[in-house]
Amino acid sequence: MAIFFTEAPEVEEIAAQIVPTTHPHLTYAKMRYVFRSEHTKSQGREIWATANLLTGRTKFLSGGYDFLIDVAEDVWNTLSTEQKFALIDHELCHCVVGEKEAWAIQGHDIEEFTAIIDRHGLWSDAAKEFAAVVEERVWREIHGENRAD
Ligand SMILES: [Zn+2]
């Protein structure tokens, strides 16, 4: 079935709540949020959303937007409100100011296989930093401390 794109006001509303407090630099970016009708797959994994930097021709054709966030509507409709906030926060983390004060896309903090951590432990600084946050987060959830933030 053909993929089609539609407006995503619910995504935009969530982003509008997150940007001022968590991603204030994006107050100055022109952000576009759309739904794609179905998720895609890349390297065997489901892609729930993507953050895209618009430059040159695509920026011109979009009417001057700096970033395009597209969200798979089929996945979106299965997510809880907390998951929706987490997904949009995640995509907004990709949207940064890079070199020469230009908008840029930031990669993930960690790229790892669960099996590698299982076999080799926290072998990299990135894995150690990630694990420290996970450990603290799990402790807070066990003790019922402010799950939402
Ligand atoms: Zn990502």
Entry summary:
With 149 residues, this protein is of the alpha+beta class. It has helices spanning 9-22, 56-62, 73-76, 81-93, 114-120, 125-142; strands at residues 5-7, 31-36, 40-42, 45-47, 49-53, 67-72, 95-97, 103-105. Zinc ion (ZN) binds next to loops.
The CA-CA distance between the termini, in Å, is 38 Å
What is the helix/strand order?
EHEEEEHEHHEEHH
Give the domain tally: 2
| Biggest sheet character | 4 strands, mixed
Characterize the overall form.
globular
The strand line-up of the biggest sheet is 1-2-6-5
Number of helices: 6
Radius of gyration: 17 Å
CATH class type of the largest domain: Alpha Beta
User: Strand content of the residues, in percent?
Assistant: 15-25%
CATH level 3 topology of the largest domain: Zincin-like
- Molecules bound to protein: zinc ion
Q: How many strands in all?
A: 8
Return residue spans where pLDDT drops below 50 for at least 5 consecutive residues.
none
- Rounded mean pLDDT is 95
Q: Please estimate the helix content.
A: 40-55%
Instruction: Please identify, by name, the CATH architecture of the largest domain.
Output: 2-Layer Sandwich
